[in-house]
Write a structure and sequence with these properties.
42% of the residues lie in helices and 15% in strands. By secondary structure, the protein is an alpha/beta fold. It has a single domain, classed as TIM Barrel. The protein has an eight-stranded parallel beta sheet. Helix 7 links the parallel strand 7 and strand 8.
Length: 267
């Protein structure tokens, strides 16, 4: 079955991973801007990173007939530095018309600090002014519910934000309804230690259904699996889910969300 991985950090993956994903019928990926494994010291470093996301990485993916899209921001981990964040946010409009850019993301909170919230809201302001889609990062582990609640409140307090054009990522059992009940899309991350397993993701689907929900691997520098979405496909098949429902979660839903992007060109 063809699938889309709507959140994977391919700059941290080898070319062999692209090959394995192609063999597993990956049709497309989207790569949110994220932490490089260290805190970058200058806005120029982010400018070069955005060039990599919008120029080099799509060409590498195309070697394996995989479509590559991306999202732009300064991630929540580095958002504690407000002055640097503002310099980076000022760079983003230069790249928004690149054909593979879907919107602003992954923005959100890491440790739920005041500086992170300030930078999050300044990203929201840019997204609202440029009418971009928004991809949300929610915190890990014990901070997840509090951080998700803070993020949802900030989204709802900005009347320019349209919930159907926002995806709240990394949802788990205790946060998925917070996203869906407020009209947002949501993503389940199949990550071995800090997020969901394929079995838990399947449980969530059985709890809330298949509307406005998708699954991703968030494959990055850490222990992660770029074939996690096919693992979910197998788990759903094992439990007897209809082929149409599986395809909706792993292919049709992310595609439907992406189609709202300003730069979208139909395949």
């Amino acid at each position: 079955m063809q699938f889309i991985d709507p959140h994977i950090h391919m700059i941290s993956r080898t070319t062999d991973d692209y090959q394995r994903m192609a063999y597993a019928q990956c049709a497309a990926v989207s790569e949110p801007a994220f932490w490089a494994g260290f805190d970058r010291g200058t806005a120029q470093a982010f400018h070069d990173y955005f060039r990599q996301l919008t120029d080099y990485e799509p060409r590498r993916a195309a070697l394996f007939h995989i479509r590559h899209y991306c999202w732009l921001c300064i991630n929540a981990k580095e958002a504690e530095n407000v002055s640097l964040s503002r310099e980076v946010i000022a760079l983003i409009p230069e790249f928004l018309k690149k054909p593979n850019v879907l919107g602003i993301g992954e923005i959100g909170l890491n440790k739920n600090t005041a500086n992170e919230a300030t930078v999050f809201q300044e990203h929201l302001d840019l997204a609202a002014k440029t009418n971009e889609l928004i991809l949300i990062h929610t915190p890990h582990l014990e901070d997840k519910y509090k951080g998700t609640r803070m993020i949802v409140d900030m989204l709802k307090n900005d009347r320019r934000v349209k919930p159907h054009r926002v995806c709240v990522d990394h949802v788990e059992e205790h946060t998925v309804k917070l996203a869906l009940d407020n009209g947002f899309w949501c993503g389940m991350t199949l990550y071995p230690t800090t997020k969901c397993t394929p079995a838990r993701a399947c449980d969530i689907i059985e709890m809330v259904g298949t509307e406005r929900i998708m699954a991703n691997s968030a494959g990055d520098w850490g222990k992660s699996d770029p074939l996690a979405v096919p693992e979910l496909i197998q788990e759903m098949k094992r439990r007897g889910h209809a082929e149409a429902d599986i395809r909706k979660v792993v292919f049709e839903n992310p595609l439907a969300f992406w189609r709202q992007s300003n730069n979208w060109r139909e395949w």
